[in-house]
Design goal:
Length: 202
């Protein structure tokens, strides 16, 4: 992986999930907040507060098996010098689709849009692997999709209002970040090839 860029007042956040059936998912997103003296631990606190403000945090990853657990996040300030802080969440994030079998390669795509054109102005998160009961015919089930859509909007609103910062799309090529204005959970499943490769190489 090439060196990460320096982007002012921006943090790279990684949700660290437990291993389930040979797969250890990671979900990366970015947060921005200006001001002096903001620490990585402060950013972790903003995430805790946003999760605590939600009625159902498990809806963020509703498509996942409920044995999938994220107990901590990696927080890295993109200033070119800071080290990564591993931060234990006050409330674990979990999947919400029961204890059924998972399907390794597919993923639900959650898109982060900024209102500007071009690939550098939109981001996406590959959520999963999904539980069998939450998908059908190559699509995410309507219940899971609706719950996830509402939960991500709720999380972003809570994060913004509680911290005074913003969920952003960071472009490493352009070394800048733009505020997320729209979140969209896609109906059609995507494919996370790296997860399939992990299983083939085991």
């Amino acid at each position: 992986m090439p060196p990460l860029p320096a982007i002012a007042d921006t943090w790279r956040i990684t949700f660290n999930w437990n291993t389930i059936q040979g797969i250890t998912p990671r979900n990366v997103w970015h947060f921005r907040k200006g001001g002096l003296g903001i620490t990585d631990a402060d950013v972790g606190g903003y995430i805790d507060d946003a999760v605590d403000a939600m009625a159902s945090p498990s809806h963020l990853f509703h498509v996942c098996n409920d044995a999938q657990v994220c107990a901590d996040v990696d927080i890295l300030k993109l200033d070119g010098t800071s080290a990564t802080l591993n931060y234990a969440l006050a409330t674990n994030l979990t999947g919400g689709s029961g204890s059924g079998q998972i399907v390794p390669a597919p993923a639900v795509l959650t898109k982060f849009l900024t209102g500007e054109r071009g690939p550098a102005r939109r981001g996406r998160m590959f959520q999963g692997p999904p539980a069998e009961g939450s998908i059908s015919n190559g699509e995410v089930g309507s219940t899971s999709r609706g719950l996830m859509q509402a939960a991500w909007e709720d999380f972003a609103d809570s994060l913004d209002s509680g911290s005074g910062g913003n969920l952003v799309v960071a472009s490493y090529a352009h070394e800048d970040a733009r505020d997320v204005t729209t979140i969209f959970v896609e109906l059609l499943l995507g494919t996370q090839k790296r997860r399939q490769d992990v299983l083939r190489n085991n």
